[in-house]
Amino acid sequence: MSARAAGSFLDRSRIIAKPGFNRWLVPPAALAIHLCIGMAYGFSVFWLPLSRAVGITKPVPCAAGARLFFDYLTSVHCDWKVAQLQTWMFGLFFVFLGSSAALWGGWLERVGPRKAGVVAAFCWCGGLVLSAVGVAQHQLWLLWLGSGVIGGIGLGLGYISPVSTLIKWFPDRRGMATGLAIMGFGGGAMIGAPLADRLMRHFATPTSVGVTATLLVLAVLYFLFMMGGALAYRLPPHDWRPRGWEPEATAEPLVTRGQVHLDVAWRTPQFWLVWAVLMLNVAAGIGILSMASPLLQEVFGGRLIHVRAAYDQLDTEQLARVATIAAAFTGLLSLFNIAGRIFWASLSDRIGRKLTYSLFFVVGMGLYASIPWTVATGNLSLFVLFFGVILSMYGGGFATIPAYLSDLFGTKMVGAIHGRLLTAWSTAGVLGPLLVGYLRQYQLDRGVPKAAVYTITMYLLAGLLALGLICNLLVRPTPAKYFMSAQQLDLMADAEPRPANTSSGQAQVRSSPALLIAAWLAVGIPMAWGVWVTLQKAALLFQN
Protein backbone atom coordinates (compact mmCIF):
# COMPACT_ATOMS: atom_id res chain seq x y z
CA MET A 1 0.00 0.00 0.00
CA SER A 2 1.43 3.38 -0.97
CA ALA A 3 1.95 6.09 1.63
CA ARG A 4 -0.80 8.14 0.02
CA ALA A 5 -3.24 5.23 0.08
CA ALA A 6 -2.35 4.47 3.68
CA GLY A 7 -2.92 8.11 4.58
CA SER A 8 -6.30 8.03 2.88
CA PHE A 9 -7.25 4.88 4.77
CA LEU A 10 -6.41 6.58 8.07
CA ASP A 11 -8.12 9.87 7.20
CA ARG A 12 -10.73 11.15 9.59
CA SER A 13 -13.34 11.21 6.83
CA ARG A 14 -13.01 7.43 6.42
CA ILE A 15 -14.28 6.70 9.94
CA ILE A 16 -17.53 8.67 9.97
CA ALA A 17 -20.12 6.12 11.02
CA LYS A 18 -22.88 5.15 8.64
CA PRO A 19 -26.54 5.33 9.71
CA GLY A 20 -27.45 2.45 12.00
CA PHE A 21 -23.97 2.09 13.52
CA ASN A 22 -24.15 0.78 17.10
CA ARG A 23 -22.30 3.20 19.37
CA TRP A 24 -21.57 0.36 21.84
CA LEU A 25 -18.92 -0.90 19.41
CA VAL A 26 -16.70 2.07 20.27
CA PRO A 27 -15.96 1.34 23.99
CA PRO A 28 -14.38 -2.09 23.29
CA ALA A 29 -12.18 -0.44 20.63
CA ALA A 30 -10.98 2.03 23.25
CA LEU A 31 -10.54 -0.76 25.81
CA ALA A 32 -8.39 -2.74 23.36
CA ILE A 33 -5.88 0.11 23.29
CA HIS A 34 -6.01 1.00 26.98
CA LEU A 35 -5.60 -2.60 28.14
CA CYS A 36 -2.32 -2.72 26.18
CA ILE A 37 -0.78 0.60 27.20
CA GLY A 38 -1.93 0.00 30.79
CA MET A 39 0.94 -2.51 31.07
CA ALA A 40 3.02 0.56 31.94
CA TYR A 41 1.69 0.09 35.49
CA GLY A 42 2.86 -3.54 35.43
CA PHE A 43 6.45 -2.95 34.30
CA SER A 44 7.67 -3.59 37.86
CA VAL A 45 7.39 -7.31 37.06
CA PHE A 46 10.59 -6.91 35.00
CA TRP A 47 12.76 -5.17 37.60
CA LEU A 48 14.03 -8.15 39.58
CA PRO A 49 14.77 -10.35 36.53
CA LEU A 50 16.54 -7.44 34.83
CA SER A 51 18.60 -6.80 37.97
CA ARG A 52 20.24 -10.22 37.39
CA ALA A 53 20.21 -10.31 33.59
CA VAL A 54 24.00 -10.86 33.56
CA GLY A 55 24.37 -12.99 36.68
CA ILE A 56 21.13 -14.96 35.96
CA THR A 57 20.89 -16.47 39.47
CA LYS A 58 22.09 -13.40 41.38
CA PRO A 59 23.11 -9.84 40.46
CA VAL A 60 26.67 -9.14 39.36
CA PRO A 61 27.65 -5.80 40.94
CA CYS A 62 29.54 -3.17 39.01
CA ALA A 63 32.95 -2.05 40.17
CA ALA A 64 33.07 0.21 43.18
CA GLY A 65 32.61 3.83 42.17
CA ALA A 66 30.75 3.01 38.95
CA ARG A 67 28.86 6.02 37.61
CA LEU A 68 25.39 5.83 36.10
CA PHE A 69 25.93 7.74 32.87
CA PHE A 70 29.39 6.38 32.13
CA ASP A 71 29.25 2.80 33.36
CA TYR A 72 25.76 1.39 33.88
CA LEU A 73 24.29 2.80 30.66
CA THR A 74 26.57 0.78 28.39
CA SER A 75 28.19 -1.87 30.57
CA VAL A 76 27.64 -5.50 29.53
CA HIS A 77 29.59 -7.04 32.41
CA CYS A 78 27.55 -6.01 35.47
CA ASP A 79 23.87 -5.84 36.36
CA TRP A 80 21.59 -2.85 36.62
CA LYS A 81 20.13 -1.78 39.95
CA VAL A 82 16.38 -1.94 40.59
CA ALA A 83 16.33 1.78 41.46
CA GLN A 84 17.84 2.67 38.06
CA LEU A 85 15.12 0.68 36.33
CA GLN A 86 12.16 1.70 38.48
CA THR A 87 12.82 5.40 39.09
CA TRP A 88 13.90 6.29 35.56
CA MET A 89 11.40 4.18 33.68
CA PHE A 90 8.36 5.37 35.60
CA GLY A 91 9.61 8.93 35.46
CA LEU A 92 9.95 8.69 31.68
CA PHE A 93 6.53 7.06 31.38
CA PHE A 94 4.78 9.88 33.22
CA VAL A 95 6.76 12.74 31.68
CA PHE A 96 6.34 11.60 28.08
CA LEU A 97 2.73 10.52 28.56
CA GLY A 98 1.78 13.99 29.76
CA SER A 99 3.99 15.94 27.37
CA SER A 100 2.98 13.96 24.25
CA ALA A 101 -0.70 14.26 25.13
CA ALA A 102 -0.27 18.01 25.61
CA LEU A 103 1.79 18.53 22.43
CA TRP A 104 -0.26 16.41 20.05
CA GLY A 105 -3.76 16.63 21.52
CA GLY A 106 -4.74 19.28 18.95
CA TRP A 107 -3.30 17.16 16.12
CA LEU A 108 -5.37 14.22 17.33
CA GLU A 109 -8.56 16.26 17.14
CA ARG A 110 -7.75 17.18 13.52
CA VAL A 111 -6.74 13.75 12.22
CA GLY A 112 -9.11 11.63 14.29
CA PRO A 113 -8.66 8.71 16.68
CA ARG A 114 -7.83 6.07 14.05
CA LYS A 115 -4.59 7.69 12.89
CA ALA A 116 -3.64 8.58 16.48
CA GLY A 117 -4.36 5.01 17.60
CA VAL A 118 -2.20 3.56 14.82
CA VAL A 119 0.69 5.89 15.72
CA ALA A 120 0.25 4.93 19.39
CA ALA A 121 0.44 1.23 18.47
CA PHE A 122 3.68 1.71 16.53
CA CYS A 123 5.23 3.79 19.31
CA TRP A 124 4.23 1.58 22.26
CA CYS A 125 4.97 -1.75 20.55
CA GLY A 126 8.00 -0.43 18.69
CA GLY A 127 9.30 0.78 22.04
CA LEU A 128 8.90 -2.73 23.47
CA VAL A 129 10.87 -4.16 20.55
CA LEU A 130 13.67 -1.61 21.04
CA SER A 131 13.66 -2.44 24.76
CA ALA A 132 14.03 -6.12 23.90
CA VAL A 133 17.10 -5.24 21.83
CA GLY A 134 18.40 -3.20 24.77
CA VAL A 135 17.96 -6.15 27.13
CA ALA A 136 19.58 -8.57 24.67
CA GLN A 137 22.57 -6.23 24.23
CA HIS A 138 22.44 -5.16 27.89
CA GLN A 139 22.26 -1.49 27.01
CA LEU A 140 20.28 0.44 29.62
CA TRP A 141 19.99 3.52 27.42
CA LEU A 142 18.12 1.50 24.78
CA LEU A 143 15.65 0.32 27.42
CA TRP A 144 15.00 3.89 28.50
CA LEU A 145 14.73 5.14 24.93
CA GLY A 146 12.51 2.28 23.78
CA SER A 147 9.86 1.90 26.45
CA GLY A 148 10.42 5.15 28.36
CA VAL A 149 10.63 7.75 25.57
CA ILE A 150 9.12 6.18 22.43
CA GLY A 151 6.74 4.01 24.44
CA GLY A 152 5.83 7.02 26.60
CA ILE A 153 4.75 8.92 23.48
CA GLY A 154 2.58 5.94 22.56
CA LEU A 155 1.11 6.03 26.06
CA GLY A 156 0.07 9.67 25.70
CA LEU A 157 -1.50 9.30 22.26
CA GLY A 158 -3.16 5.99 23.11
CA TYR A 159 -4.53 7.33 26.38
CA ILE A 160 -6.32 10.36 24.91
CA SER A 161 -7.27 8.86 21.53
CA PRO A 162 -10.74 7.64 22.61
CA VAL A 163 -11.70 10.48 24.95
CA SER A 164 -13.42 12.99 22.66
CA THR A 165 -14.74 10.15 20.48
CA LEU A 166 -16.56 8.49 23.37
CA ILE A 167 -17.89 11.79 24.69
CA LYS A 168 -19.32 12.58 21.25
CA TRP A 169 -20.97 9.14 21.06
CA PHE A 170 -22.28 9.28 24.65
CA PRO A 171 -23.22 12.91 25.42
CA ASP A 172 -25.91 11.48 27.67
CA ARG A 173 -23.45 9.30 29.63
CA ARG A 174 -20.11 11.08 29.40
CA GLY A 175 -18.73 9.79 32.67
CA MET A 176 -19.70 6.18 32.08
CA ALA A 177 -18.28 6.15 28.55
CA THR A 178 -14.87 7.56 29.47
CA GLY A 179 -14.87 5.42 32.62
CA LEU A 180 -15.24 2.29 30.50
CA ALA A 181 -12.21 3.14 28.39
CA ILE A 182 -9.97 4.49 31.12
CA MET A 183 -10.87 1.45 33.24
CA GLY A 184 -8.77 -0.46 30.72
CA PHE A 185 -5.66 1.54 31.56
CA GLY A 186 -5.98 0.47 35.18
CA GLY A 187 -6.63 -3.12 34.10
CA GLY A 188 -3.66 -3.37 31.76
CA ALA A 189 -1.23 -4.32 34.52
CA MET A 190 -3.72 -6.78 35.97
CA ILE A 191 -3.53 -8.75 32.71
CA GLY A 192 -0.03 -7.91 31.51
CA ALA A 193 1.94 -8.45 34.74
CA PRO A 194 0.88 -12.09 35.37
CA LEU A 195 1.13 -12.82 31.63
CA ALA A 196 4.67 -11.42 31.52
CA ASP A 197 5.59 -13.40 34.64
CA ARG A 198 4.45 -16.66 33.00
CA LEU A 199 6.20 -15.82 29.75
CA MET A 200 9.47 -15.06 31.52
CA ARG A 201 9.33 -18.38 33.35
CA HIS A 202 8.59 -20.13 30.04
CA PHE A 203 11.46 -18.47 28.16
CA ALA A 204 14.01 -18.56 31.01
CA THR A 205 17.12 -20.65 30.33
CA PRO A 206 20.43 -21.19 32.16
CA THR A 207 21.80 -18.23 30.16
CA SER A 208 18.74 -15.93 30.03
CA VAL A 209 16.12 -14.59 32.43
CA GLY A 210 13.57 -14.62 29.59
CA VAL A 211 12.85 -10.87 29.44
CA THR A 212 13.91 -10.35 25.81
CA ALA A 213 11.57 -12.97 24.37
CA THR A 214 8.76 -11.84 26.70
CA LEU A 215 8.99 -8.25 25.49
CA LEU A 216 8.88 -9.40 21.87
CA VAL A 217 5.82 -11.59 22.45
CA LEU A 218 4.04 -8.77 24.28
CA ALA A 219 4.92 -6.37 21.44
CA VAL A 220 3.26 -8.66 18.88
CA LEU A 221 0.16 -9.30 21.00
CA TYR A 222 -0.27 -5.65 21.90
CA PHE A 223 0.26 -4.52 18.32
CA LEU A 224 -2.55 -6.80 17.09
CA PHE A 225 -4.92 -5.61 19.80
CA MET A 226 -4.07 -1.92 19.43
CA MET A 227 -4.38 -1.97 15.66
CA GLY A 228 -7.71 -3.77 15.96
CA GLY A 229 -8.92 -1.09 18.36
CA ALA A 230 -7.64 1.80 16.25
CA LEU A 231 -9.19 0.46 13.04
CA ALA A 232 -12.51 -0.11 14.82
CA TYR A 233 -12.87 3.56 15.86
CA ARG A 234 -15.79 5.42 14.33
CA LEU A 235 -16.86 9.04 14.68
CA PRO A 236 -20.51 10.13 14.81
CA PRO A 237 -21.83 12.29 11.94
CA HIS A 238 -21.87 16.03 12.47
CA ASP A 239 -24.49 17.10 15.05
CA TRP A 240 -25.42 13.48 15.81
CA ARG A 241 -27.20 12.84 19.11
CA PRO A 242 -28.75 9.75 20.75
CA ARG A 243 -32.37 9.11 19.88
CA GLY A 244 -34.69 10.90 22.28
CA TRP A 245 -31.92 12.79 24.06
CA GLU A 246 -32.13 16.56 24.31
CA PRO A 247 -29.28 18.43 26.05
CA GLU A 248 -31.58 21.17 27.27
CA ALA A 249 -33.62 18.64 29.21
CA THR A 250 -30.60 17.57 31.29
CA ALA A 251 -28.94 20.94 31.74
CA GLU A 252 -26.88 21.46 34.91
CA PRO A 253 -25.51 24.77 36.22
CA LEU A 254 -21.87 23.78 35.59
CA VAL A 255 -22.46 22.36 32.10
CA THR A 256 -21.65 24.93 29.46
CA ARG A 257 -23.82 25.38 26.39
CA GLY A 258 -20.94 26.89 24.44
CA GLN A 259 -17.68 25.57 22.98
CA VAL A 260 -14.24 26.77 24.08
CA HIS A 261 -11.19 26.56 21.84
CA LEU A 262 -8.07 24.80 23.09
CA ASP A 263 -5.97 27.96 22.82
CA VAL A 264 -8.47 29.77 25.06
CA ALA A 265 -9.39 26.94 27.46
CA TRP A 266 -5.94 26.47 28.95
CA ARG A 267 -5.76 30.16 29.83
CA THR A 268 -8.96 30.15 31.89
CA PRO A 269 -9.11 29.93 35.71
CA GLN A 270 -11.38 26.89 35.30
CA PHE A 271 -8.65 24.94 33.50
CA TRP A 272 -6.00 25.58 36.14
CA LEU A 273 -8.34 24.87 39.02
CA VAL A 274 -9.25 21.51 37.46
CA TRP A 275 -5.54 20.95 36.74
CA ALA A 276 -4.83 21.39 40.45
CA VAL A 277 -7.80 19.18 41.36
CA LEU A 278 -6.46 16.31 39.24
CA MET A 279 -2.84 16.81 40.28
CA LEU A 280 -3.59 16.78 44.03
CA ASN A 281 -5.93 13.79 43.81
CA VAL A 282 -3.40 11.82 41.76
CA ALA A 283 -0.40 12.87 43.87
CA ALA A 284 -2.03 11.45 46.99
CA GLY A 285 -3.12 8.23 45.30
CA ILE A 286 0.06 7.56 43.37
CA GLY A 287 2.14 8.20 46.46
CA ILE A 288 0.37 5.25 48.07
CA LEU A 289 0.56 3.08 44.95
CA SER A 290 4.31 3.59 44.73
CA MET A 291 4.79 2.31 48.30
CA ALA A 292 1.84 -0.09 48.75
CA SER A 293 3.87 -3.26 49.22
CA PRO A 294 6.52 -1.96 51.68
CA LEU A 295 3.84 0.03 53.51
CA LEU A 296 1.81 -3.05 54.43
CA GLN A 297 4.91 -5.09 55.31
CA GLU A 298 6.55 -2.47 57.51
CA VAL A 299 3.36 -1.36 59.25
CA PHE A 300 1.94 -4.77 60.16
CA GLY A 301 5.14 -6.83 60.10
CA GLY A 302 4.73 -10.24 61.72
CA ARG A 303 1.05 -9.66 62.42
CA LEU A 304 0.38 -10.54 58.76
CA ILE A 305 1.45 -14.12 59.52
CA HIS A 306 0.35 -14.20 63.19
CA VAL A 307 3.85 -13.68 64.58
CA ARG A 308 4.45 -11.17 67.38
CA ALA A 309 7.43 -9.44 65.81
CA ALA A 310 8.26 -6.22 63.99
CA TYR A 311 9.25 -6.30 60.34
CA ASP A 312 13.00 -6.03 61.13
CA GLN A 313 12.76 -9.00 63.50
CA LEU A 314 11.48 -11.50 60.91
CA ASP A 315 13.70 -14.20 59.45
CA THR A 316 14.17 -14.87 55.72
CA GLU A 317 11.33 -17.39 55.43
CA GLN A 318 8.93 -15.13 57.30
CA LEU A 319 9.89 -12.14 55.17
CA ALA A 320 9.12 -14.15 52.03
CA ARG A 321 5.65 -15.03 53.36
CA VAL A 322 5.00 -11.40 54.26
CA ALA A 323 6.14 -10.25 50.80
CA THR A 324 3.70 -12.69 49.17
CA ILE A 325 0.83 -11.25 51.20
CA ALA A 326 1.93 -7.70 50.31
CA ALA A 327 1.85 -8.63 46.63
CA ALA A 328 -1.73 -9.82 47.13
CA PHE A 329 -2.53 -6.47 48.76
CA THR A 330 -1.12 -4.61 45.75
CA GLY A 331 -3.18 -6.76 43.38
CA LEU A 332 -6.35 -6.12 45.36
CA LEU A 333 -5.71 -2.38 45.22
CA SER A 334 -5.52 -2.63 41.43
CA LEU A 335 -9.02 -4.15 41.41
CA PHE A 336 -10.37 -1.26 43.47
CA ASN A 337 -8.56 1.13 41.12
CA ILE A 338 -10.27 -0.45 38.10
CA ALA A 339 -13.73 -0.72 39.65
CA GLY A 340 -13.55 2.87 40.84
CA ARG A 341 -12.98 4.13 37.31
CA ILE A 342 -16.34 2.88 36.08
CA PHE A 343 -18.28 3.28 39.36
CA TRP A 344 -17.36 6.87 40.18
CA ALA A 345 -17.44 8.04 36.56
CA SER A 346 -20.93 6.57 36.12
CA LEU A 347 -22.08 8.10 39.41
CA SER A 348 -20.84 11.50 38.20
CA ASP A 349 -23.42 11.32 35.38
CA ARG A 350 -26.10 11.42 38.08
CA ILE A 351 -24.70 13.75 40.73
CA GLY A 352 -22.35 15.93 38.64
CA ARG A 353 -18.57 16.08 38.38
CA LYS A 354 -18.00 18.78 40.99
CA LEU A 355 -19.90 16.91 43.69
CA THR A 356 -18.13 13.68 42.74
CA TYR A 357 -14.74 15.27 43.21
CA SER A 358 -15.86 16.84 46.46
CA LEU A 359 -16.71 13.35 47.69
CA PHE A 360 -13.25 12.15 46.65
CA PHE A 361 -11.60 14.80 48.77
CA VAL A 362 -13.89 14.75 51.82
CA VAL A 363 -14.08 10.96 52.09
CA GLY A 364 -10.39 10.63 51.20
CA MET A 365 -9.33 13.01 53.97
CA GLY A 366 -11.31 11.01 56.50
CA LEU A 367 -9.87 7.70 55.31
CA TYR A 368 -6.26 8.88 55.25
CA ALA A 369 -6.62 10.34 58.72
CA SER A 370 -8.11 7.04 59.95
CA ILE A 371 -5.30 4.82 58.66
CA PRO A 372 -3.09 5.32 61.78
CA TRP A 373 -6.06 4.19 63.91
CA THR A 374 -6.48 0.96 61.92
CA VAL A 375 -2.76 0.30 62.39
CA ALA A 376 -2.89 0.97 66.14
CA THR A 377 -5.83 -1.40 66.56
CA GLY A 378 -4.32 -4.01 64.24
CA ASN A 379 -7.49 -4.14 62.15
CA LEU A 380 -6.16 -5.48 58.84
CA SER A 381 -9.60 -5.76 57.22
CA LEU A 382 -10.39 -2.07 57.77
CA PHE A 383 -6.87 -1.10 56.70
CA VAL A 384 -7.32 -2.94 53.39
CA LEU A 385 -10.88 -1.63 52.93
CA PHE A 386 -9.88 1.99 53.56
CA PHE A 387 -7.01 1.82 51.10
CA GLY A 388 -9.26 0.07 48.60
CA VAL A 389 -11.77 2.93 48.72
CA ILE A 390 -8.92 5.46 48.47
CA LEU A 391 -7.58 3.75 45.33
CA SER A 392 -11.08 3.52 43.84
CA MET A 393 -11.30 7.30 44.09
CA TYR A 394 -7.82 7.63 42.61
CA GLY A 395 -8.98 5.68 39.55
CA GLY A 396 -12.33 7.46 39.55
CA GLY A 397 -10.55 10.79 39.35
CA PHE A 398 -8.89 9.81 36.07
CA ALA A 399 -12.13 8.53 34.59
CA THR A 400 -14.24 11.51 35.65
CA ILE A 401 -11.90 14.29 34.52
CA PRO A 402 -12.63 14.11 30.75
CA ALA A 403 -16.35 14.50 31.44
CA TYR A 404 -15.59 17.37 33.85
CA LEU A 405 -13.67 19.12 31.04
CA SER A 406 -16.46 18.56 28.50
CA ASP A 407 -18.94 20.05 30.98
CA LEU A 408 -16.79 23.15 31.34
CA PHE A 409 -15.46 23.63 27.81
CA GLY A 410 -17.80 21.73 25.50
CA THR A 411 -17.10 18.65 23.41
CA LYS A 412 -15.51 20.11 20.26
CA MET A 413 -11.92 20.11 21.52
CA VAL A 414 -12.15 18.12 24.75
CA GLY A 415 -9.55 15.58 23.60
CA ALA A 416 -6.93 18.28 23.05
CA ILE A 417 -7.84 20.05 26.31
CA HIS A 418 -7.60 16.73 28.13
CA GLY A 419 -4.16 16.25 26.62
CA ARG A 420 -2.98 19.56 28.07
CA LEU A 421 -4.48 18.69 31.45
CA LEU A 422 -2.54 15.43 31.65
CA THR A 423 0.57 17.44 32.48
CA ALA A 424 -1.01 17.40 35.96
CA TRP A 425 -0.51 13.62 35.95
CA SER A 426 3.15 14.05 35.00
CA THR A 427 3.60 16.49 37.88
CA ALA A 428 1.78 14.26 40.36
CA GLY A 429 3.75 11.22 39.18
CA VAL A 430 6.92 12.91 40.38
CA LEU A 431 5.52 14.80 43.40
CA GLY A 432 3.55 11.99 45.07
CA PRO A 433 6.24 9.28 45.22
CA LEU A 434 8.87 11.93 46.07
CA LEU A 435 6.88 13.20 49.07
CA VAL A 436 6.10 9.73 50.40
CA GLY A 437 9.58 8.30 49.78
CA TYR A 438 11.47 11.31 51.11
CA LEU A 439 9.32 11.66 54.23
CA ARG A 440 9.73 7.93 54.96
CA GLN A 441 13.50 8.08 54.61
CA TYR A 442 13.70 11.30 56.64
CA GLN A 443 11.97 9.64 59.58
CA LEU A 444 13.98 6.41 59.29
CA ASP A 445 17.22 8.43 59.36
CA ARG A 446 16.07 9.94 62.66
CA GLY A 447 15.34 6.62 64.31
CA VAL A 448 11.57 6.41 63.86
CA PRO A 449 10.47 2.74 63.86
CA LYS A 450 9.35 1.44 60.47
CA ALA A 451 5.88 0.67 61.80
CA ALA A 452 5.39 4.36 62.65
CA VAL A 453 6.96 6.17 59.68
CA TYR A 454 3.73 6.33 57.68
CA THR A 455 1.58 8.09 60.29
CA ILE A 456 2.74 11.60 59.37
CA THR A 457 2.61 10.60 55.70
CA MET A 458 -1.11 9.85 55.97
CA TYR A 459 -1.78 13.28 57.48
CA LEU A 460 0.30 14.92 54.75
CA LEU A 461 -1.71 13.17 52.02
CA ALA A 462 -4.93 14.23 53.76
CA GLY A 463 -3.60 17.79 53.59
CA LEU A 464 -3.09 17.46 49.82
CA LEU A 465 -6.72 16.40 49.48
CA ALA A 466 -7.82 19.41 51.58
CA LEU A 467 -6.09 21.68 49.06
CA GLY A 468 -7.79 19.77 46.26
CA LEU A 469 -11.18 20.29 47.87
CA ILE A 470 -10.61 24.06 48.04
CA CYS A 471 -9.65 24.17 44.35
CA ASN A 472 -12.69 22.10 43.40
CA LEU A 473 -15.07 24.33 45.34
CA LEU A 474 -13.66 27.36 43.52
CA VAL A 475 -14.61 25.97 40.08
CA ARG A 476 -17.36 28.04 38.48
CA PRO A 477 -19.21 27.75 35.14
CA THR A 478 -17.15 28.96 32.19
CA PRO A 479 -18.16 32.54 31.28
CA ALA A 480 -19.62 33.12 27.82
CA LYS A 481 -16.73 35.48 26.97
CA TYR A 482 -14.54 32.40 26.42
CA PHE A 483 -16.95 30.70 23.98
CA MET A 484 -16.17 30.40 20.30
CA SER A 485 -18.20 32.75 18.13
CA ALA A 486 -20.85 31.58 15.69
CA GLN A 487 -18.44 32.28 12.84
CA GLN A 488 -15.74 30.11 14.42
CA LEU A 489 -18.22 27.29 14.98
CA ASP A 490 -19.39 27.55 11.37
CA LEU A 491 -15.80 27.29 10.16
CA MET A 492 -15.26 24.22 12.33
CA ALA A 493 -18.48 22.69 11.04
CA ASP A 494 -17.39 23.32 7.44
CA ALA A 495 -14.09 21.62 8.20
CA GLU A 496 -15.82 18.59 9.69
CA PRO A 497 -15.32 15.60 7.38
CA ARG A 498 -18.42 13.99 5.93
CA PRO A 499 -18.83 10.34 5.03
CA ALA A 500 -18.42 9.42 1.38
CA ASN A 501 -22.16 8.82 0.90
CA THR A 502 -24.21 11.54 2.51
CA SER A 503 -27.47 11.35 0.60
CA SER A 504 -30.47 11.91 2.81
CA GLY A 505 -32.09 8.77 1.50
CA GLN A 506 -29.23 6.52 2.54
CA ALA A 507 -30.59 3.29 3.97
CA GLN A 508 -29.70 2.34 7.51
CA VAL A 509 -27.36 -0.61 7.90
CA ARG A 510 -27.58 -1.87 11.45
CA SER A 511 -24.48 -3.27 13.13
CA SER A 512 -24.50 -7.04 13.51
CA PRO A 513 -25.29 -8.27 17.08
CA ALA A 514 -22.67 -10.97 16.54
CA LEU A 515 -20.05 -8.31 15.86
CA LEU A 516 -21.01 -6.48 19.04
CA ILE A 517 -20.74 -9.66 21.12
CA ALA A 518 -17.41 -10.57 19.54
CA ALA A 519 -15.99 -7.10 20.21
CA TRP A 520 -16.88 -7.22 23.89
CA LEU A 521 -15.65 -10.81 24.27
CA ALA A 522 -12.30 -9.83 22.75
CA VAL A 523 -11.66 -7.42 25.62
CA GLY A 524 -13.86 -9.08 28.24
CA ILE A 525 -12.13 -12.47 28.29
CA PRO A 526 -8.62 -11.08 29.03
CA MET A 527 -10.09 -8.79 31.70
CA ALA A 528 -11.97 -11.70 33.32
CA TRP A 529 -8.75 -13.74 33.36
CA GLY A 530 -6.87 -10.86 34.97
CA VAL A 531 -9.57 -10.43 37.63
CA TRP A 532 -9.52 -14.16 38.40
CA VAL A 533 -5.73 -14.25 38.81
CA THR A 534 -5.81 -11.14 40.99
CA LEU A 535 -8.58 -12.50 43.23
CA GLN A 536 -6.69 -15.75 43.69
CA LYS A 537 -3.67 -13.82 44.92
CA ALA A 538 -5.76 -11.42 47.00
CA ALA A 539 -7.29 -14.37 48.89
CA LEU A 540 -3.90 -14.80 50.60
CA LEU A 541 -4.60 -11.62 52.57
CA PHE A 542 -7.32 -13.33 54.56
CA GLN A 543 -5.97 -16.88 54.73
CA ASN A 544 -3.32 -16.15 57.32
What's the short story on this structure?
With 544 residues, the protein is mostly helical.
Radius of gyration: 24 Å
What pattern of helices and strands is seen along the backbone? Answer: HHHHHHHHHHHHHHHHHHHHH
Which oligomerization state do the chains in this entry correspond to?
Answer: single chain
Q: How does CATH name the architecture of the largest domain? A: Up-down Bundle
How is the main sheet built? none
The number of distinct helices, counting runs of at least 4 residues, comes to 21
- For the record, the count of structural domains works out to 2
Question: What is the number of beta strands?
Answer: 0
**Structural classification:** mainly alpha
- Helicity range: 55-70%
CATH topology of the largest domain: Growth Hormone, Chain: A
State the end-to-end CA separation: 60 Å
The CATH superfamily of the largest domain is identified as: MFS general substrate transporter like domains
Which consecutive residue ranges, at least 5 long each, have pLDDT under 50?
Answer: 500-507
Strand content: under 5%
User: CATH class of the largest domain, anyone?
Assistant: Mainly Alpha
Shape descriptor: globular
Mean pLDDT comes to 85
Describe the fold and architecture.
The protein is mostly helical and 544 residues long. It has two domains: 15-239 and 515-544, Growth Hormone, Chain: A (Up-down Bundle), CATH 1.20.1250; 254-484, MFS general substrate transporter like domains (Growth Hormone, Chain: A), CATH 1.20.1250. Helix content is 69%, strand content 0%. The chain is built from 21 helices and no strands. The chain has helices at residues 3-10, 26-37, 47-50, 68-72, 82-111, 113-137, 140-160, 163-169, 174-203, 211-232, 262-265, 269-289, 292-300, 316-351, 353-377, 380-409, 414-421, 423-445, 454-473, 486-495, 513-538. Helix 2 (26-37) packs antiparallel against helix 10 (211-232), helix 2 runs parallel beside helix 21 (513-538) and helix 6 (113-137) packs antiparallel against helix 7 (140-160). The termini are far apart. The model is unreliable at 500-507 (pLDDT under 50).
